[in-house]
From TrEMBL:
InterPro entries: Znf_GRF (IPR010666). Keywords: Membrane, Metal-binding, Transmembrane, Transmembrane helix, Zinc, Zinc-finger. Residues 20-59 form the GRF-type domain. Coiled coil: none annotated. The chain crosses the membrane at residues 102-122. It comes from the Eukaryota. This is GRF-type domain-containing protein. One of its GO terms (molecular function) is zinc ion binding. PROSITE patterns: ZF_GRF.
Protein backbone atom coordinates (compact mmCIF):
# COMPACT_ATOMS: atom_id res chain seq x y z
CA UNK A 1 0.00 0.00 0.00
CA UNK A 2 1.43 3.39 -0.92
CA UNK A 3 2.14 6.05 1.71
CA UNK A 4 -0.40 8.44 0.15
CA UNK A 5 -3.20 5.90 0.52
CA UNK A 6 -2.10 4.98 4.05
CA UNK A 7 -2.11 8.68 5.07
CA UNK A 8 -5.60 9.11 3.65
CA UNK A 9 -6.87 6.11 5.62
CA UNK A 10 -5.08 7.24 8.79
CA UNK A 11 -6.81 10.64 8.60
CA UNK A 12 -10.03 9.22 10.10
CA UNK A 13 -11.32 9.57 13.63
CA UNK A 14 -10.06 7.10 16.21
CA UNK A 15 -11.54 6.11 19.54
CA UNK A 16 -10.09 4.20 22.46
CA UNK A 17 -11.61 0.77 23.10
CA UNK A 18 -13.03 0.26 26.57
CA UNK A 19 -14.17 -2.67 28.64
CA UNK A 20 -17.48 -2.59 30.46
CA UNK A 21 -17.79 -3.43 34.16
CA UNK A 22 -18.34 -7.10 33.20
CA UNK A 23 -14.85 -7.11 31.65
CA UNK A 24 -16.18 -7.45 28.08
CA UNK A 25 -15.19 -5.22 25.17
CA UNK A 26 -17.77 -2.40 25.14
CA UNK A 27 -20.06 -2.08 22.13
CA UNK A 28 -20.06 1.14 20.13
CA UNK A 29 -23.50 2.46 19.21
CA UNK A 30 -25.02 5.62 17.75
CA UNK A 31 -27.47 7.65 19.80
CA UNK A 32 -30.84 8.07 18.09
CA UNK A 33 -32.56 10.22 20.73
CA UNK A 34 -34.02 13.45 19.39
CA UNK A 35 -31.88 15.86 21.39
CA UNK A 36 -28.45 17.49 21.22
CA UNK A 37 -26.77 14.04 21.46
CA UNK A 38 -28.47 12.59 18.36
CA UNK A 39 -26.03 10.64 16.12
CA UNK A 40 -23.31 10.80 18.80
CA UNK A 41 -21.24 7.64 19.37
CA UNK A 42 -21.27 5.96 22.76
CA UNK A 43 -19.96 2.76 24.35
CA UNK A 44 -22.07 0.40 26.43
CA UNK A 45 -22.12 -3.16 27.82
CA UNK A 46 -22.67 -5.60 24.91
CA UNK A 47 -24.99 -7.70 27.10
CA UNK A 48 -26.70 -4.73 28.79
CA UNK A 49 -25.85 -6.41 32.10
CA UNK A 50 -23.70 -3.90 34.02
CA UNK A 51 -25.24 -0.64 32.73
CA UNK A 52 -21.83 0.62 31.53
CA UNK A 53 -22.09 3.81 29.46
CA UNK A 54 -19.66 6.43 28.20
CA UNK A 55 -19.54 8.82 25.26
CA UNK A 56 -16.90 8.13 22.61
CA UNK A 57 -14.36 10.94 22.51
CA UNK A 58 -11.90 11.08 19.59
CA UNK A 59 -8.30 10.44 20.63
CA UNK A 60 -6.92 12.89 18.10
CA UNK A 61 -8.95 15.01 15.75
CA UNK A 62 -7.31 15.39 12.32
CA UNK A 63 -6.53 19.00 11.40
CA UNK A 64 -8.91 19.00 8.45
CA UNK A 65 -11.76 17.87 10.70
CA UNK A 66 -10.83 20.38 13.40
CA UNK A 67 -11.07 23.27 10.93
CA UNK A 68 -14.39 22.01 9.56
CA UNK A 69 -15.67 21.47 13.09
CA UNK A 70 -14.77 25.03 14.09
CA UNK A 71 -16.47 26.41 10.97
CA UNK A 72 -19.60 24.33 11.63
CA UNK A 73 -19.72 25.52 15.23
CA UNK A 74 -19.60 29.14 14.06
CA UNK A 75 -22.34 28.49 11.49
CA UNK A 76 -24.42 26.78 14.16
CA UNK A 77 -24.15 29.86 16.40
CA UNK A 78 -25.29 32.10 13.53
CA UNK A 79 -28.21 29.77 12.71
CA UNK A 80 -29.29 29.61 16.35
CA UNK A 81 -29.33 33.41 16.51
CA UNK A 82 -31.35 33.59 13.27
CA UNK A 83 -33.79 31.03 14.66
CA UNK A 84 -34.16 33.04 17.88
CA UNK A 85 -34.86 36.21 15.89
CA UNK A 86 -37.46 34.40 13.75
CA UNK A 87 -39.11 33.00 16.87
CA UNK A 88 -39.24 36.49 18.37
CA UNK A 89 -41.02 37.73 15.21
CA UNK A 90 -43.42 34.78 14.88
CA UNK A 91 -44.39 34.39 18.55
CA UNK A 92 -46.40 37.66 18.76
CA UNK A 93 -48.22 36.75 15.52
CA UNK A 94 -49.18 33.35 16.92
CA UNK A 95 -50.40 34.93 20.15
CA UNK A 96 -52.44 37.51 18.19
CA UNK A 97 -53.96 34.72 16.09
CA UNK A 98 -54.99 32.91 19.27
CA UNK A 99 -56.64 36.06 20.64
CA UNK A 100 -58.51 36.69 17.36
CA UNK A 101 -59.75 33.10 17.41
CA UNK A 102 -60.96 33.49 21.03
CA UNK A 103 -62.67 36.79 20.18
CA UNK A 104 -64.36 35.20 17.14
CA UNK A 105 -65.68 32.32 19.24
CA UNK A 106 -66.89 34.85 21.82
CA UNK A 107 -68.77 36.83 19.16
CA UNK A 108 -70.29 33.62 17.78
CA UNK A 109 -71.49 32.64 21.25
CA UNK A 110 -72.88 36.14 21.86
CA UNK A 111 -74.73 36.12 18.52
CA UNK A 112 -76.12 32.65 19.24
CA UNK A 113 -77.29 33.76 22.69
CA UNK A 114 -78.94 36.89 21.24
CA UNK A 115 -80.65 34.83 18.52
CA UNK A 116 -81.99 32.41 21.13
CA UNK A 117 -83.13 35.31 23.32
CA UNK A 118 -84.95 36.93 20.38
CA UNK A 119 -86.58 33.63 19.48
CA UNK A 120 -87.79 33.11 23.04
CA UNK A 121 -89.13 36.67 23.41
CA UNK A 122 -90.99 36.55 20.06
CA UNK A 123 -92.85 33.38 20.93
Amino acid sequence: MSDAIREEIDDGLRFQNSNCFCGLRASVKISDKRNENRYRLFQCCPKDACRFFQWCIPLKMPTSYAEEFQQLQEELCVLREELRLMHDKVHPIVETKKMVKIMFIGWCLLCTALALLLTVTMV
